[in-house]
Amino acid sequence: MSNKAFEKCKKEIIETINSTKDFDIDDVLDLVDNFDLSTEELDAIFDIIRNPDSDLESVTPEKSELQQLYEKYNVTLHRKKRIYKVNLNIRDFALFNSTPYLLTYNDFVLHHHSWGNLLLDFVNYLEYNNPQKLEYLLSFNTDWSKQEIFSDRKKTNHKKLLNGLYLNCNHTALHACWLLQDIIRLYDVDMNDVNLYIHRGNDCEPKELIEKIQNEVKQNFRKFLIDTHNKSEINAQKIISNIDTAMNPKLKDLSSTYTNFFMFDDYVMLYNYSIRFESKIDENLRIPQKNKIIFKRYLSYLKEFYKLNGY
């Protein structure tokens, strides 16, 4: 929810209303059109318009159930991609089937989907701004691994730093995060100044969040099928059920990250997986040709739906 846009819109609405008792509703609506507001924010703005004598400053948009779940599980939406903020102050991470997405520190921003590259670039940044003696780095070790972290010669799975040393980048997601913590301490950086966001595989997301997202996407997809493709309510529900029972299990065989066609948060990823899905069913001689045609038609519906909804 874009709080800055909402607050700015609310301020302009209040100023317009307070400037005259007989304010023109069309002028107010024109103001609203200038802001990209969510459904909840629009409802709150229209409450102001309908009740100009109420306590305008206190009006805030009511949070949806999904928004409340996002806050509960530290989910941030980047465009529409769900990313989870990691608490770097603790060692116990649930990072199975997760990839890094974003790391920020002061004005430094890293977009990476590889743990090794994220560590490499972050160390390069810290070393550039606060260089350490090479002997100090070479003597550094961890309490969770016997492997060298820094080396003065090229080794397997080591990547070269700008200072000439090599960084061990061969770690699981869990150990990569532990190493990130250790490096933050090594360079005497406040842990609270570093923000790490990850993308989780569908099966690793909170169950109640998964159920809520799937229900909302299915409702919107059913409406899309009815409004855009003139499907009946029964036919639209049948398409959704077929995707659930016949297509999702096959998708799960292709991916450990996206395992449900109603859980995609990125159109490009959906498009790429749809190509892989079509290739998989084309190679399967046990799937009747009639079913393959139906699956591909459903994929075209899904791609059109996600694209129209700005994923």
What is the H/E string?
A: HHHHEEEEHHEEEHEHHHH
Helix content: 40-55%
User: What is the global morphology?
Assistant: flat
Whole-number radius of gyration?
A: 25 Å
Query: Pairing-aware structural class of the strands and helices?
Result: alpha+beta
- Main sheet: strand order: 1-2-8-3-4
The biggest beta sheet is recorded as: 5 strands, antiparallel
Low-confidence stretches: none
**So how many helices?**
11
Task: Itemize the secondary structure elements and their pairings.
Blueprint: H1 3-19, H2 25-33, H3 39-50, H4 65-72, E1 75-78, E2 81-86, E3 98-105, E4 108-111, H5 115-129, H6 134-138, E5 150-151, E6 158-160, E7 166-168, H7 173-186, E8 194-200, H8 207-229, H9 233-254, H10 267-283, H11 289-308
Antiparallel strand pairs: 1-2, 2-8, 3-4, 3-8, 5-7, 6-7
Brief description of this entry?
The chain is an alpha+beta fold and 311 residues long. It has helices at residues 3-19, 25-33, 39-50, 65-72, 115-129, 134-138, 173-186, 207-229, 233-254, 267-283, 289-308, and strands at 75-78, 81-86, 98-105, 108-111, 150-151, 158-160, 166-168, 194-200.
Please tell me about this protein's structure:
- This protein is α+β, with helices and mostly antiparallel strands and 311 residues long.
- It has three domains: 3-62, no CATH class; 68-200, no CATH class; 205-308, no CATH class.
- It contains eleven helices and eight strands.
- The protein has helices at residues 3-19, 25-33, 39-50, 65-72, 115-129, 134-138, 173-186, 207-229, 233-254, 267-283, 289-308; strands at 75-78, 81-86, 98-105, 108-111, 150-151, 158-160, 166-168, 194-200.
- The strands form two sheets. Strands 1-2-8-3-4 form a five-stranded antiparallel beta sheet.
- The longest helix is centred in the last third of the chain and has 23 residues, at 207-229.
- The protein is flat.
